[in-house]
Write a structure and sequence with these properties.
67% helix, mainly alpha, globular, 137 residues, 7 helices
């Protein structure tokens, strides 16, 4: 049952049903009977939903950053949350520009460079250039 609700939430997300997927992921994220990696994945997916198909679910943080941070508190090596922090940098309507979080995440990902896909490495390079521009301003 535990795995099935995660799969159900992923399925709903893939079908574009962000609100229901977000609700299921939110139940998984706070369930202390689950392991931290699964809870972190749920928080990460909540951030993905808010940053993508359902930004109206969190009007304070359309970038999903607070969910990615919660994921990393549970699982500091959650590669999805690390990549999503970098990926959402400068992209939301409120322009997630938390430079300190960005730089910390960038450094953590550089320590895992050999684990990353080529596309992820390119995205990180592009975001690093954006980060440098924001630091100048």
């Amino acid at each position: 049952m535990i795995l099935n609700d995660f799969m159900l939430a992923e399925s709903m997300f893939m079908e574009g049903n962000g609100e229901e997927a977000f609700w299921i992921f939110s139940q998984i994220a706070v369930d202390e009977l689950r392991n931290n990696a699964e809870r972190a994945d749920a928080y990460n997916m909540m951030g993905v939903i808010v940053n993508g198909i359902a930004p109206h679910l969190d009007l304070e943080d359309e970038s999903g950053l607070k969910y990615y941070k919660k994921a990393l508190l549970l699982d500091p090596d959650n590669i999805g949350a690390l990549l999503n922090i970098i990926g959402s940098f400068g992209m939301s309507p409120n322009m997630h520009r938390d430079v300190d979080v960005f730089l910390d995440t960038y450094n953590r990902l550089m320590n895992k460079k050999e684990e990353l896909e080529y596309e992820d490495k390119k995205m990180i390079e592009r975001k690093y250039e954006l980060g440098k521009q924001l630091l100048i301003m």
